[in-house]
């Protein structure tokens, strides 16, 4: 075989190869250009795309701009103004630092950059195609920069072929612009696609911006969260459990205002929702993490979409605890309202409605640029709005807005019915309690299930057994499969409070049961717990204890049809309202309903 010499690749080829990492699709171009504009301290950005960005991406800003030397150098490989030394990397505060984006984009598209520094009179225009020679000319422009990227991958047919339809590419581009809209509410942002204005957002406090981009319905389903420690600040919103989404696409995680994906944190949020969500649904969350840049490494992914924390476990615990706390302390339990569409298909006329928050200046803000600030659809240029007033952190923005936005009409807290309040049992199924604001209806089975479920989890966690010994141990014959399941689960079953002796030949002697199991029910409950456990295991094979806690709580709880004495009802309610989640059962069904006096008055025509 002919010997191949080792040689250094020409820059043009090297850039084309690097582009493979940095530029996946039009979305990456949009993201990199927007980030450059933000790094240049722009206050107003415009994004124009055609055919989902496959034909054209143009980002214009009113930022610092570049002089000719910088404008030319910016296209060089590893050309950056953002770090000087390796040490700078340790505390990076800008989006960019790798100096790869412009070189990579230019290697695989036709690029024009028009830029003007504020203190210079003239703009510089730099053109390049497929990473070839730069041509430089002069022109006029407001201070700032416009980068136009045409015919992405025109010279890399293999990659051009892999682009999806313009609609799909548009969706990705939209997501990228959307994320910037969320994390930079103080920046004016306009987005135009194929000549249509998709949105045009005025600088606004975060809650107003969120209202603009998500709409009122979504926003009213959110709970604000906020927590800070010496190392980490987390602010943002999470959805009420009743507002799960069918897909995971409503998860926004920003680290020092940079959108990132992080499985650990996503998992921390999920784990906090545990069983509050309906199967197959995911929470909406929007979390801004602020952390000392020294304690996090953003340089582990070519597009910086991932980050590595010094103390990932610590961050996990912090976020899980925060979300859990916020869910517990928030009044999200459903109340009956008339705002639904009574009589709609499959509806009884009553409907769960979330608590409505009032938004000052509510509705969509139809913000427009002042008359003189026309947007040129080709250059997309818009003039600068407010001069920069120093950097604003997400939490400052939140602080400014949240209280105001959430100064909702005083919501009645879901407190337990006062001691001595009259209680009724309805159809041996529901407990009705008079409360100050009206009436509360509690589903006795799911309420008890919640109590037992949390108790079971506590027992596992504390490894403290709480078992009642049977006067007359019960001998139970199981199927071979159940017997081996008991063998497998013995430790955890004992953790719950079962005291079991395995006698071989599929025979188990039950010597003790958890304190909540009713006398006489021991055998049935053990068998039913095993049966249900097998069902849950199919869905979540790894959550042994959780599945067991769910099976146990479901099978040992009082059932619909069980008559309860007043004392039992009272005990049930007392126990319910000290659980962490009194409003939703471990499977996501509601436990408590409330009908207010106003609601009744309305229905009786008194209002
Ligand atoms: P990086 O952002 O990692 O530094 P880029 O290739 O994205 O690398 O950009 C190279 C350099 O070009 C930047 O460091 C910056 O100095 C300059 N630059 C790019 N875009 C702009 C812009 N919109 N406004 C001002 N300067 C810019
Ligand atoms: Mg950059």
Describe the structure.
With 607 residues, the chain is α+β, with helices and mostly antiparallel strands. It folds into 3 domains: 11-203, Histidine kinase-like ATPase, C-terminal domain (Heat Shock Protein 90); 221-332 and 367-413, Ribosomal Protein S5, domain 2 (2-Layer Sandwich); 423-576, MutL, C-terminal domain, regulatory subdomain (Ribosomal Protein S8, Chain: A, domain 1, 2-Layer Sandwich). It has helices spanning 11-22, 26-39, 68-73, 101-107, 157-162, 166-183, 206-220, 263-273, 312-329, 394-405, 444-462, 480-496, 522-539, 544-556, 566-576, 597-603; strands at 44-50, 56-61, 110-116, 123-129, 135-139, 144-150, 188-193, 196-201, 222-228, 232-239, 251-255, 258-259, 285-291, 296-297, 308-309, 335-337, 351-353, 423-426, 430-435, 438-443, 467-477, 499-502, 507-514, 592-596. An 8-stranded mixed β-sheet has the order 5-4-3-6-2-1-7-8. Strands 9-10-13-11-12 form a 5-stranded mixed β-sheet, sandwiched between helices. Helix 1 (11-22) packs across helix 4 (101-107) and helix 11 packs across helix 15 (566-576). Residues 334-413 have low confidence and may be disordered. The structure holds adenosine-5'-diphosphate (ADP) and magnesium ion (MG). Magnesium ion binds at residues 32, 35-36, 96, 101. The site of magnesium ion has 5 residues, from helix 2.
């Amino acid at each position: 075989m002919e010997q191949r010499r080792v040689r250094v690749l020409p820059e043009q080829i090297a850039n084309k190869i690097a582009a493979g990492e940095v530029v996946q699709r039009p979305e990456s171009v949009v993201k990199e250009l927007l980030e450059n504009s933000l790094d240049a301290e722009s206050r107003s950005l415009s994004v124009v795309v055609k055919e989902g960005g496959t034909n054209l991406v143009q980002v214009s800003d009113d930022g610092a701009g570049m002089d000719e030397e910088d404008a030319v150098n910016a296209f060089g490989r590893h050309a950056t103004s953002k770090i000087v030394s390796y040490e700078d990397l340790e505390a990076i505060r800008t989006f960019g630092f790798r100096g790869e984006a412009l070189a990579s984009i230019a290697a695989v598209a036709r690029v024009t950059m028009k830029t003007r520094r504020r203190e210079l009179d003239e703009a510089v225009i730099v053109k390049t195609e497929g990473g070839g020679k730069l041509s430089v000319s002069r022109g006029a422009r407001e201070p700032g920069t416009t980068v136009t990227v045409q015919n992405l991958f025109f010279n890399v047919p293999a990659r051009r072929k892999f682009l999806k339809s313009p609609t799909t590419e548009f969706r990705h581009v939209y997501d990228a612009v959307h994320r910037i809209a969320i994390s930079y509410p103080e920046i004016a942002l306009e987005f135009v696609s194929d000549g249509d204005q998709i949105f045009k957002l005025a600088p606004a406090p975060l809650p107003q911006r969120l209202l603009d981009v998500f709409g009122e319905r979504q926003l009213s389903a959110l709970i604000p969260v906020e927590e800070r420690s010496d190392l980490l600040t987390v602010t943002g919103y999470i959805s009420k459990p009743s507002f799960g989404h069918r897909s995971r696409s409503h998860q926004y995680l920003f680290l020092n205002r940079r959108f990132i994906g992080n499985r650990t944190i996503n998992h921390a949020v999920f784990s906090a929702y545990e069983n509050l969500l309906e199967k197959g649904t995911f929470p909406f969350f929007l979390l801004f993490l602020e952390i000392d840049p020294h304690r996090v490494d953003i340089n582990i992914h070519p597009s910086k979409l991932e980050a590595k924390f010094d103390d990932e476990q610590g961050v996990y615990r912090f976020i899980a605890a925060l979300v859990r706390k916020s869910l517990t302390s928030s009044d999200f339990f459903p109340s009956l309202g008339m705002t639904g569409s009574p009589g709609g298909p499959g509806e009884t006329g009553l409907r769960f409605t979330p608590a409505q928050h009032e938004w000052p200046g509510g509705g969509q803000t139809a913000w427009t640029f002042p008359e003189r600030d026309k947007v040129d659809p080709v250059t997309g240029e818009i003039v600068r709005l407010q001069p920069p007033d120093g950097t604003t952190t997400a939490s400052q923005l939140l602080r400014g807005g949240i209280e105001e936005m959430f100064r909702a009409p005083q919501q009645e807290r879901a407190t337990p019915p006062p001691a001595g309040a009259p209680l009724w049992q309805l159809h041996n199924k529901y407990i009705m309690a008079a409360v100050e604001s009206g009436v509360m209806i509690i589903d006795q089975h799911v309420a008890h299930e919640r109590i037992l479920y949390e108790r079971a989890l506590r027992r596992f966690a504390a490894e403290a057994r709480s078992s009642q010994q049977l006067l007359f141990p019960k001998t139970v014959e199981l199927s071979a499969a159940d017997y081996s399941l008991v063998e497998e689960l013995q430790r955890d079953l004992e953790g719950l409070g079962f005291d079991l002796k395995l006698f071989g030949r599929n025979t188990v002697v039950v010597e003790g049961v958890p304190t909540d199991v009713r006398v006489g029910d021991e055998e049935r409950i053990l068998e039913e717990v095993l049966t249900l456990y097998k069902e849950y295991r199919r869905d979540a094979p790894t959550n042994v204890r959780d599945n067991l806690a769910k099976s146990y709580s479901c099978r040992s709880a009082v059932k619909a049809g069980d008559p309860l004495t007043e004392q039992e009802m009272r005990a049930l309610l007392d126990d319910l309202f000290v659980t962490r989640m009194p409003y939703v059962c471990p499977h996501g069904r509601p436990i408590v309903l409330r009908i207010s006096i106003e609601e009744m008055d309305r229905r009786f025509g008194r209002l």
